[in-house]
Structures are given as C-alpha cells and as structure tokens.
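Quick illustration, no need to memorize.
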Amino acid sequence: MDAGLLLTEARRRSGLSRRQLARRGRTSASTLAAYESGASVPSVATLTRLLRAAGFDAQVSLQGTGSAEDAERGAAIEALLVFTDGLPRAERGSLGYPVFGCRRAGADR
C-alpha cells in the first residue's frame, strides 16, 4: 500500500483541494503535499485521520507472502518442468482404449 497514492486518490474522489483536506485533517497543506509525493510517510494514525477527513475509511488485512520453503519448492518444480520439456519425444501413435459395455468373446464373468 502506498500512502501517498491512497491520499491523492481519496482527495481526488472527495473533490477536496489539498488545502481543504489538510485543514479538515488537522495538518498543513505542505505536509499533505509531502505525503502525497512520497517525500514523507504518514503514521498509520495520521493516514487514518486524513482518509476519514476525506470521507473514507481504511481497511487493512494480512496476506501471507509465502515462506522460503515454498519458494524452494516452486523453484524445484519449475526446474523439473524445464528438464522434462527438454527430453526427446518419440511418436507413439494413437492411444488405445477399452470399449466399455462390450463383452469380448470367451470372457469369463
């Protein structure tokens, strides 16, 4: 999550100028400009306050990023697939298959 982009989008969607949002969010327009440009990063409390001043609520959720073990497994699988793609292939003709429901002559039950 990029706090600057989030603030810029909230301000744009609310129709507020930078000065108006800064006043509502109890900060200065220059500080808000620094947040929006990425020159400074607001605390979670400040970000929440500014988003609420623009009429929005922030929602935060945790998402797993995977473990190093998962990355190793993925790399091993990828290496195996690359290896098997490089193996020579021989023409084998069409595959035969059984016909279900038909009984062969002389077949026992």
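The helical segments are 3-14, 18-24, 29-37, 44-53, 68-85.
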